[in-house]
Design brief:
Helix content is 39%, strand content 19%. It has 273 residues and is α/β, with parallel strands linked by helices.
C-alpha cells in the first residue's frame, strides 16, 4: 500500500494522475507520519465509530482513521481526486461524497458525532461557523491555519478576538493542541498550522445574539455604542444598557466576552418590549 506520508510518493501519485495541488482549494497534503498519528490520537477514534471529514485530499487522514477502526464519511469538493481516492482507500470502510461542504445538509448527522479534518484553508472559517451553529458534532478535531486557530481561541481585548471567537465561545470549549510546521505538508504552505479541539457545549444557535455581535464589530475602530446606533438600536436604549452593565460608554466590542453580550442583548430586548 502506498505510503502517503512521503513527499516523493505523493508527488509521484499526483504525477501519475496528471494532477497538482490546487492552491485555490487550499490543498496542502499532510506528509508527516508522526503528526498524522498526533491527529488520530487526538481524535481518539473508537472501533466502529462514525467520523465525518471534509477535504480528504489524497486520503491520508481518512485512511489512518479507517485503519484505526472508524467508519469515515468524507466530503471532497475536487472531483479530480476521485480516481486517486478510489485507489488509496480501496477496501476501507469509507463513504465518499463529492460536493461542496458549505452546501452539505449537516442536519442529517446524528447528534454528538465526531468531526476530524485537515481543513482546506479557504473554507475553515465559514464551515466551522456553520458546524458550530448546527450543533451536530460533540467534538471537532481540526487542523487549521494558525491565524484561524488563534481567532477561535482568542480572549477579549486581544487583536485576534472577534466574531469567530465569540461564535466558538458561545457553542464550545476550545483547546489548541499543537502547531504543525510548513514542512509537514506537500506542497509547503507559507504559514504554520494548528491542531484544535472544539467540544460543543450544546448551546443552540442564537441569531439575535449574533446579529448584535456582528453589529458591534461592524467597524472595529468605532465604539460599541456608535456601531449599535448605526445598526438601528436607539441611542438612549444603548446608553442605558451599557450603564446598567457598568460598561464605559466608549467601550469597543472587542472588550466584551460572550456572557456580557448575552446580558446586553437581554437588556436591549427588555427595553424594546
Amino acid at each position: 500500500m502506498l505510503s502517503l506520508t512521503k513527499p516523493s510518493t505523493v508527488r509521484k501519485l499526483l504525477e501519475r494522475y496528471g494532477l497538482a495541488a490546487d492552491r485555490r482549494l487550499g490543498q496542502n497534503f499532510l506528509v508527516d507520519a508522526g503528526l498524522l498519528d498526533v491527529i488520530v490520537r487526538a481524535a481518539d477514534v473508537a472501533p466502529g465509530q462514525e467520523v465525518w471529514e471534509v477535504g480528504p485530499g489524497l486520503g491520508t487522514l481518512t485512511r489512518a482513521m479507517a485503519e484505526a477502526g472508524a467508519r469515515v464519511h468524507a466530503i471532497e469538493k475536487d472531483t479530480r481526486l476521485e480516481p486517486v481516492l478510489h485507489e488509496t482507500l480501496v477496501g476501507l470502510p469509507v463513504e465518499l461524497t463529492f460536493g461542496d461542504a458549505l452546501e452539505h445538509d449537516w442536519s442529517k448527522v446524528p447528534p454528538g458525532s465526531l468531526f476530524v479534518s485537515n481543513l482546506p484553508y479557504n473554507v475553515a472559517t465559514p464551515l466551522l461557523t456553520e458546524l458550530l451553529r448546527q450543533g451536530r458534532f460533540g467534538r471537532m478535531v481540526v487542523l487549521l491555519q494558525r491565524e484561524v486557530a488563534d481567532r477561535l481561541a482568542a480572549a477579549p481585548g486581544t487583536p485576534a478576538y472577534g466574531l469567530l471567537s465569540l461564535r466558538a465561545a458561545h457553542h464550545a470549549r476550545v483547546r489548541k493542541l499543537r502547531d504543525f510546521p510548513p514542512e509537514a505538508f506537500y506542497p509547503r504552505p507559507k504559514v504554520t498550522s494548528t491542531l484544535v479541539e472544539l467540544k460543543h457545549t450544546g448551546a443552540p444557535d442564537d441569531p439575535e445574539l449574533f446579529r448584535l455581535i456582528a453589529a458591534g464589530f461592524a467597524q472595529r475602530r468605532k465604539t460599541l455604542r456608535k456601531n449599535l446606533e448605526q445598526a438601528g438600536w436607539p441611542r438612549t436604549r444603548v446608553a442605558a444598557a451599557l450603564e446598567q452593565l457598568g460598561l464605559d460608554p466608549r467601550v469597543r466590542a472587542e472588550r466584551l466576552d460572550v456572557q456580557t453580550f448575552r446580558d446586553l442583548r437581554a437588556l436591549l430586548a427588555e427595553d424594546a418590549s
